Amino acid sequence: MNWKCLASLLMLFFVSTNAHADDAAASKDASAAEKPSDELADKFVTTEHSFSVAGETIDYTATAGRLVMQTDELDPKAEVFFVAYERRTDDATKRPLTFCFNGGPGSSSVWLHLGMLGPKIIRFPDDASLLSPPYHLDENHQSLLDITDLVFIDPVSTGYSRPAKDVNKSDFHGYNEDVRSVGQFIHDYTTLNERWLSPKLILGESYGGLRVAGLSGYLRDHYKMELNGAVVISGAINFQTLRFSPSNDVPDVCFLPTYTATAWYHKQLDDEMQSLPLAEVVAKSEKFAYQKYAPALLKGTGISKKERQRVAKELASLTGLSEAYLLSSNLKISMQRFGKELLRDEGLTVGRFDGRYTSIDRDSAGETPEFDASGAAIFGPFTACLNDYMHRDLKYKDRRVYEILTGNVHPWSYKPFEGRYVDASETLRGAMAANPSFKLFVACGYYDLATPHFAMEYTIDHMGLSPERSKNLTIKHYEGGHMMYVHEPSLKQLRQDLVEFYEGAVGQPAE
């Protein structure tokens, strides 16, 4: 008899039958968590919780899990990780169901999960100062769990989601591939949990806006799944509005109002402009952008010297940059240049995701910032809190790295858009045209230098929505950045706006 057998006999001798059964089960669970099987299988860990929203106690079930997507031959394609929150109720079909995801591509859903929608939240200072580690989570009294169940999806290669063994990751890393895989997850989750009769919405942030647009058509065309609506947070849908180049003037026009907002925040405008409310200052910049700046840029080198100088002077008053700098830049200012130039004299750079944040480079002589000051402020807290929350509260164990924001999805394929800018706005228009019940909510942050509010407005203005379908559109602006929800006053207003939107999209207050 070897020593392992002897140890087993001793255990049987000293431990009662019931205790032994419990230990064996725990050992089996731990082993499964630490040593993934070659054969993928669904894995769901369910826990019960409660918290308060709008003065009401919400009892809910949290499910952290791995859903294995399969081919029609039932071969595994990928394991998709998700976290779902369902309010405990007698009839789940009467509850709206919202599928949530961030963007990247390459981002997990952690930002929406722990920053805006879930029952737990990271609180950031409203003055854009940095949190100091260690970090912690609080109850999120601005969560939407009182009005809708929530499913946070990590697309393949993000979070704990991975391709199945011997499946090429390129099957998931592209516009079409991503829409197909996330679409199949939504279909599979809806079927598995018997939620086909629930009101359904999709909610995406950043590149998630492009995914929302793609899914709005794919779910309808491929699965005949009708949506009640979609929410886009700081979305990117038409990349022409975001890609700076000498021959593309659209981003210069679209970014200008956000430059103005950021300069106003840092008190870089003249006294008259600084004395105005933010929304009024931005409105002045938007008017100039369309009426004077865009026509000037369209003329290229054909612009007269007099007009060029006149535009540079007004542009300087709206950006806080010098006329000399603007003239030497041919009136075109990329976001990276603006981020370095605005506070150069103070030795500071401004953030891309959120222009309220600042940081310090090695020197002030460079062309662009060394890194994104706002990214540096938020990535650490979200990562630490997610990993602790996953293990401690949700009881989900996985030895692999939870990929918060990864480059493992690259190269990313935009094959459907070869020879032109990436633009899924027509797909979104088609979905809204075909389904009169489809409502769209768009949230934009004034200090978002990644996906500016004016770029989204430009995209929507060029979608060609009919007057009837335009009534299904809601656009709101907030005094925050790309993740406007890290600014608590904006988060509170965002919840209030979304509660109203959901009532219209679902047709009645959620039960």
Any key phrases for this structure?
about 500 residues; alpha/beta; ten-stranded mixed β-sheet; two-stranded antiparallel sheet; 16 helices; about 40% helix; about 15% strand; globular; disordered N terminus
Chain-wise SSE layout:
Elements lengths: L2 H12 L2 H18 L8 E11 L2 E15 L5 E12 L9 E5 L8 H8 L2 E2 L16 E2 L9 E6 L7 E2 L11 H18 L7 E6 L1 H17 L5 E5 L16 H16 L5 H4 L3 H21 L6 H15 L3 H6 L6 H7 L7 E2 L7 E2 L13 H20 L32 H10 L4 E7 L7 H9 L5 H4 L2 E6 L9 H19 L5
Parallel strand pairs: 4-7, 4-9, 9-10, 10-13, 13-14
Antiparallel strand pairs: 1-2, 2-3, 3-7, 3-8, 5-6, 11-12
Written account of the structure:
By secondary structure, this protein is α/β, with parallel strands linked by helices. It contains 16 helices and 14 strands. The strands form 3 sheets. Strands 1, 2, 3, 4, 7, 8, 9, 10, 13 and 14 form a 10-stranded mixed β-sheet that branches. Helix 4 crosses helix 5, helix 6 runs antiparallel to helix 8 and helix 8 packs antiparallel against helix 9. The termini are far apart. The N terminus is likely disordered.
- Mean of residue pLDDT? 92
Report on the biggest sheet: 10 strands, mixed
Question: In which range does the helix fraction lie?
Answer: 25-40%
Termini distance? 63 Å
Q: Structural class of the helices, strands and pairings?
A: alpha/beta
| Silhouette | globular
Indicate the proportion of strand residues. 15-25%
Order of helices and strands: HHEEEEHEEEEHEHEHHHHHHEEHHEHHEH
Can you tell me the residue ranges where pLDDT is under 50 for at least 5 consecutive residues?
1-37
- CA-based gyration radius: 25 Å
Number of helices: 16
How many beta strands in the DSSP annotation?
14
